[in-house]
UniProtKB/TrEMBL annotation:
It comes from Kitasatospora kazusensis. It is a multi-pass membrane protein. It holds the Pfam family Proton_antipo_M. The keyword Transmembrane helix applies. InterPro entries: NADH-Q_OxRdtase_suN/2, ND/Mrp_TM. NDH-1 shuttles electrons from NADH, via FMN and iron-sulfur (Fe-S) centers, to quinones in the respiratory chain. The immediate electron acceptor for the enzyme in this species is believed to be a menaquinone. Couples the redox reaction to proton translocation (for every two electrons transferred, four hydrogen ions are translocated across the cytoplasmic membrane), and thus conserves the redox energy in a proton gradient. The chain crosses the membrane at residues 34-57, 64-84, 113-134, 146-163, 169-187, 199-226, 246-268, 280-303, 309-331, 343-365, 371-395, 416-440, 452-473, 494-517. The gene is nuoN. This is NADH-quinone oxidoreductase subunit N.
Length: 526
């Protein structure tokens, strides 16, 4: 654990902030770097292809759409390879009068930061697709619409971390969210409609607040490009400073809704519980990662000038989020009639608090170096959390309510599934043999200590200990004597089998060699 997180330019790939050159209107026509935009573009084309294929395929053959979706996402992941092995690429840039391109004026930049989050988004969507193949069939969900919406949301999640202006950021964030509303509502009962409505109303509120903040920032700085905003805030006239500060605060509040940070978390437990299980897992990882990427970009680049202020604010949000999330999860343990998905929902809130800690450290230290800890922890969390949701999806096939008590004695009749869930829970708790979870928490903890946020590090340490109770209690239930009602044995679908194998293997490999996570973040594996 002696590796260090990458520095600001290594991770974000941003040049020193310089004023933008005046654009020549005659030079705005430019070529598009198709290689740079290939990952989100392939996902978008796959979405259209699936939607069109659904019109012509007979009902008996529509199962192939799920595997086609997985194939499209796999191709999008492969498209990351040429980007990872080369230099930072950018496109949709403003050109100056000499024809040279200023990277600071580009709306799309494929740097290490973007590529790692695209790996997380597209990989998480791929795992979600594999988990969903049997769910779409058994719950009689409309297959064509389901796969189209999943691919559309994944497209937005892949676009967002490469966005370098506020307009593109907001559009990408809405492309993530709008299909997600419909995915939640596809569940054929009242809970799906209720969950989608809560999700929709909270997200619309967040978007409205964010747009108001963006309008204030634009009025104060005259630009939507992140680096230009940073330069503008450094030289904003005194009479516009209150407007700029209010705009920055409102923009951050909007992203806090998307990350489900306390006190903007109220929609999350009911939304996860009312969603199809694979979609709950998708929201907990991919949707959250998209909001986190946007939050990291606007704070460390656009609002760098206000680093100390938003650093303290994010530190308070992080402490509240991890504490409230753990308290909510403990309440699920007090009543075993609650579903496992609801417990994972509250756990997801607490994990969001840990993810916010390095962002707070970046503000306190006035450096982007701690963001590497957030990216590393997000990768670890994505693998183990999606694995846990895959096990819940497998148990829900015989126990649709997926109550916590339904996992009692799981080791007796599903040995490998129980062992997989136990390992994932230990990783989430940060206990051996889930070394990768411990490694992620140590990296996050160290970022707070190095930034001088001792109070936040202590709060995190206390919450990690508290969280061990419900993780260990659930783990112990897996190996307890089976209840009187034996669960019906059903063969595990191929998609779930592949998912469990992939996530468990990745978690084991990272537990043996946790330094691989930081190598991916820093780009040395590429």
């Amino acid at each position: 654990m002696h590796s260090s997180v990458p520095g600001p330019h290594e991770l974000l790939g941003q040049p020193a902030m310089t004023p933008l050159a005046v654009a020549d209107p005659g030079s705005l026509i430019q070529s598009v770097d198709w290689v740079a935009i290939a990952p989100p573009l392939i996902a978008a084309l796959a979405a259209l292809a699936v939607l069109l294929a659904d019109l012509f395929l007979p009902a008996a053959r529509k199962k192939v759409l799920g595997w086609a979706t997985a194939g499209g996402l796999a191709l999008a992941l492969i498209a990351l390879l040429p980007l990872a092995r080369g230099n930072t690429r950018s496109t949709f840039c403003v050109q100056n009068v000499t024809g040279a391109t200023d990277n600071a004026a580009c709306s799309y930049v494929a740097d290490h930061f973007a590529l790692v989050f695209q790996l997380l988004a597209l990989g998480g969507a791929l795992i979600t697709a594999l988990i969903s193949i049997h769910t779409v069939d058994e719950e009689e969900l409309p297959g064509g619409e389901y796969w189209f919406l999943l691919l559309s949301s994944a497209t937005g999640a892949a676009l967002l971390p490469a966005a370098r202006d506020l307009a593109t950021l907001i559009v990408a964030l809405e492309v993530v969210s709008l299909p997600a509303f419909a995915l939640v509502a596809l569940r054929r009962d009242g809970r799906g409609a209720e969950a989608a409505l809560k999700f929709f109303l909270s997200s619309v509120t967040a978007t409205a607040v964010m747009l108001l903040g963006v309008s204030f920032v634009y009025a104060a700085t005259g630009s939507l490009h992140l680096t230009a905003i940073a330069d503008g805030l450094a030289h904003v006239p005194a009479q516009l400073k209150p407007l700029a500060e209010a705009g920055a605060a409102l923009t951050l509040v909007g992203f806090a809704f998307k990350v489900a940070a306390v006190p903007f978390h109220f929609w999350l437990p009911d939304t996860y519980t009312g969603s199809p299980v694979p979609i709950a897992g998708y929201l907990s990882v991919v949707s959250k990662a998209a909001g986190l990427a946007g939050l990291a970009l606007v704070t460390t680049i656009a609002f760098h000038q206000y680093g100390h202020t938003w650093g303290i604010a994010l530190g308070v949000l992080a402490a509240l989020t991890m504490t409230v999330g753990n308290v909510g999860a403990l309440r699920q343990r007090a009543d075993t009639r609650h579903s496992a998905v609801r417990l994972l929902a509250w756990s997801s809130i607490s994990q969001a608090g840990y993810l916010l800690v390095p962002l707070a450290a970046a503000g306190a230290a006035r450096s982007t170096a701690p963001i590497g800890a957030t990216v590393a922890y997000a990768l670890i969390y994505a693998v183990v959390n999606l694995g846990a949701f895959a096990v819940v999806a497998a148990v829900a096939r015989t126990a649709p309510a997926a109550r916590i008590d339904d996992f009692r004695g799981l080791f007796t009749h599903r040995r490998w599934t129980a062992l997989g869930l136990a390992f994932f829970l230990l990783c989430l708790g940060g206990l051996p043999p889930g070394v990768v979870g411990l490694f992620g928490k140590v990296v996050v903890f160290r970022s707070a200590v190095d930034a001088g946020l001792g109070w936040l590090a202590v709060t995190m340490a206390v919450n990690v200990v508290v969280a061990l109770y419900y993780y260990l209690a659930w783990t112990a239930k897996l190996f307890a004597p089976a209840g009187t009602e034996a669960q019906q044995q059903r063969r595990t679908p191929a998609g779930l089998t592949v998912t469990l194998a992939l996530t468990a293997s990745a978690a084991v490999v990272l537990s043996v060699a946790p330094q691989l996570v930081l190598q991916v973040v820093s780009g040395t594996l590429f």
